[in-house]
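Homework help board

Subject: predicted structure for assignment chain

Our instructor gave us this sequence and asked us to write out the predicted structure in token form, then describe one feature. I got the tokens but I'm not sure how to describe them. Can anyone check?
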Amino acid sequence: MSANFNGSPKNGGFDAADVYFTGGLSEFFRGRCRRSCAIDFALAVSSDLTNPNLEQLHLRVRRKQSRSCQCGFFEPSPFPPHGGDMKRIDQGFLGVVFVVLTCAGAFGQSTAQINGRVTDQTGAVLPGVEVTATQTATGAARTAVTDETGSYTLPTLPVGPYRLEGALPGFRTYAQTGIILQVGSNTTVNVVMEVGQVAETVKVEANAALVETRTTSVGQVIDNQRVLELPLNARQVTELIVLSGAAIGGGAQATNRNYPTQSISLGGGLNNGLTYRLDGGTHNDPFNNLNLPLPFPDALQEFKIETSAAPAQYGEHSSGAVNLVTKSGTNQFHGDLFEFVRNSVFNARNAFAVSKDGLKRNQFGGVLGGPILKNKLFFFGGYQGTIERSQPTEFRSFVPTAQMLAGDFTTVSSTACRATPLTLKAPFAGNKIDPAKFSPQALNMVKLLPTTTDPCGEVRYGRLSNDNEHVVASKFDYQWSQKHSLFGRYQLNDLFNPTDYDGRNILSSTQGNYYRRIHSFVLGDTYLIGAGIVSSFRGTLNRVTSFKTMDGTGFPLTSFGDLGVKGIYQDPDIAKVPQVSVNNGFSIHSAPGLPGFTNSTVFQFSEDVSVVKGAHQIGFGADFINRRMNVKATSHATPNYAFDLIFTGLGLGDFLLGLPSQFNQGLPNAFYFRQNY
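My token output:
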């Protein structure tokens, strides 16, 4: 089904609009959106996209005098049906979608559904057949009764293996096994019943054909077997998304403000244009719209990638949607223990490398799931720890030598230390500078630097790169009744990157201790309101804390004021890090590694309602997301000096004279961001 919107702007909004729906339209539904907008509409819903009969539904929208209109339509087509200018309803605070029209089955985003038609052996439809789908792993059952056309629909079913049964007096009971529901699937199972006694059963053991005829999106499911068995670098599940034919990986994203992940473009969209839903709850980082950390492979059931006219529930981002489901417990206990090791002792040396790869990574943990109350209450829990150590990467810098401190720059200016000889600029003759002209503040900083016996002033040192990560995943499922089920899922990700300061050389430090912790909680409630009406509610809370600190690093905290520099303001709330950069010399620390934090909190409440009426299905709902983010960056507020080749022609010469080419200091960057969607 496609929608086209025509309207005329008035008073910053719209006064009247025309919305055209085209598709296989067979029956109409009338209603009104009662908010600040008055909208009279007629809905036409097609039962199958393969229906070649195309009609058109004309929807007239008129706006009241109130300017706070909160009724919207999702994804209007860019072209009106008969030409003319297209206007978009765009309210800056619009956060809730009240009307969703879909030809596909409308169901919860982390679930699936079964639909079909029941006939006898002659092909005549059978109304009044009681169709029951039972999840074989948990015993949870859902029942529907076929209508006068013999059609039935069982929406919002948890993923997993199912047994489908059909019963009607005068006919043998029909039972089919081997039905595997995957996330977001809309499986069609047509039932053929034979005349006989209800006590007699016709058993069919066959996989249901997962052919989608009721959705416009293009998608691919990555099932549990592929999640577990495909090789993954560092067991990063996000990399599996690129298995979709329309996905292109944009590389690792591990900036100073987000949890390490992958940037992925889907269907030609933006690298950060994907909607991530974990168990039906939003799972995007407000800072960059990339994903929050996903469950590790042993805790993830499966996921589906969708693009190209995806359902309105995924309308938050432009590129596509990734819908993931965490594993659940069943009536049997299942679990595993694992450890994955990467160590240089197992590897050969790269032919183009001087030495072996020094990376050492240990990933270990386990999962366990099972029943607390059989057929009622189930649990699942898992843990993964990652300890990563690497050989220090070797760096080199140049610091003042004893000869330079005595005013003699002849060696460092000669071909012994550089490709072409250098002559210091006037008025410095003979490549010598009077030590009496050296800056006392610069000499105080030299005391913090490592000493060297190299005549050119070269020093070599290593920078550590270590990680400690802990992931906890847990989920509880409760089958309250045949009509009512609940689940709760909690995931904790904790990542600690210790400082790269080696405890001896101030030049080895580029960042402080970096702590990142993410709490993610989803509460799900599915309730069968009445015959053919199913409600699916999701409540989500995501809390992200990401901060860097120099506390506990052992770094010699020293301000420029402590070195004797006058007139420099040192914010008492900012760590004392003397940022200095000397051309062809050395640098102390780096701006991205300075203390700061990026914290965010996300609340989400979503409700999807599926109404089955005959052979047709209508879905509508609301989705409210509130994002709050606090950011403080101190890189601009920390004073920093740069020494170039301006005064002496040698960076170390300018440094010892205390003649900087640049000085920078600003205010701390801090802002409070809030967004309602």
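Reply (TA_rk): Your tokens look well-formed. For the description, you could write something like this. The CA atoms of residues 606 and 623 lie 4 Å apart. That's the kind of observation they're looking for.
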